[in-house]
Design a protein that fits this description.
Layout: H1 6-33, H2 35-38, H3 74-110, H4 112-126, H5 130-141, H6 145-171, H7 175-182, H8 187-223, H9 235-242, H10 251-278, H11 281-285
Length: 286
């Protein structure tokens, strides 16, 4: 099929969307890492005289995205909020992914009672919606950054475990796994040498989508008042602060909302691209 055919055009569109996703995500990462240097003001500094100033995109660069009800610079708070959101999501993905992968490997490779126990735990936890489970755990453990990371990891490990278990069970039917075991390979060697390299692709795709979902979840609990406590800037509590002024100061909710939407969109586009790269059969079906 040439590039001008339907599949060729589809691949070209997917490639461009993937590049867009990488661009958006890279921009957010640069903003998060460089927040201390890019922020024009201290995100916690209050100036009541300058409260609720409108964005000055084309005027003097004093407050490009305006100020909030306490005179704090919105741009500076968004930049610092990005570092908090990305750090929490990345830490939770790393911790939850590690636990889920370990559980999935044990369940898929050894089967038996270990699999039954792990999958029953997974089924029980998946019976609860993510946001309700997170809210309940935050109410019990508290809303510090470390607690939120731990809660997100505890709430998301079953998805990794389910995906990895399915991949491992499929791999166990492959000839090269049987050959490695027949040649006397120990379980640890077979898992590390032959199983793990073959589950990296689906793991990467799942982790990218979970990363975007956790950013949205962190913003949601912040909006509900159960996230990191003010005055620490996060996108969620910025939305919550701006809710009372939504008719008079639209920028207080618009710009944090755009930051959340663009970040989640960029990461989801990366996930879609990785999925298509790792499973070319999806392109042939469409």
């Amino acid at each position: 099929m040439d590039a001008s055919g339907p599949r060729g055009r589809f691949r070209l569109i997917r490639r461009r969307l993937g590049l867009l996703g990488f661009g958006l995500t890279a921009t957010v990462v640069v903003a998060a890492v460089g927040a201390p240097f890019l922020s024009p003001y201290d995100p916690l500094a209050q100036d009541i005289v300058a409260r609720l100033r409108t964005p000055q995109l084309f005027g003097p660069p004093s407050h490009p995205l305006g100020t909030d009800h306490l005179g704090r610079d919105v741009l500076s708070r968004i930049l610092h909020g990005s570092s908090i959101s990305l750090a929490i999501a990345a830490s939770a993905v790393a911790l939850g992914g590690t636990a889920g992968v370990a559980a999935g490997l044990v369940a898929g490779y050894f089967r038996g009672s270990a699999e039954n126990l792990i999958m029953r735990l997974v089924e029980i936890q998946l019976a609860f919606p993510l946001i309700l489970l997170v809210l309940a755990m935050v109410a019990v453990l508290g809303a510090s950054a470390s607690n939120i990371v731990l809660i997100f990891a505890l709430a998301t490990w079953p998805l990794y475990a389910t995906v990895i278990r399915g991949q491992v069970i499929a791999l166990m039917e492959r000839e090269f796994i049987g050959a490695a075991r027949a040649l006397g390979g120990k379980d640890a060697y077979v898992i590390l040498r032959h199983v793990m390299p073959n589950v990296v692709s689906p793991l990467t795709v799942v982790a990218s989508f979970e990363f975007a979902r956790l950013i949205l979840t962190e913003a949601a609990i912040g909006f509900l008042g159960l996230g990191i406590r003010p005055p620490t800037p996060t996108w969620g509590n910025m939305l919550a602060d701006g809710r009372a002024y939504i008719h008079d100061a639209w920028w207080l909710t618009t710009f944090p909302g755009l930051a959340i939407a663009l970040t989640a969109t960029g990461i989801n586009l990366i996930g879609d691209t990785l999925r298509d790269m790792f499973d070319p059969r999806l392109l042939n079906i469409r």
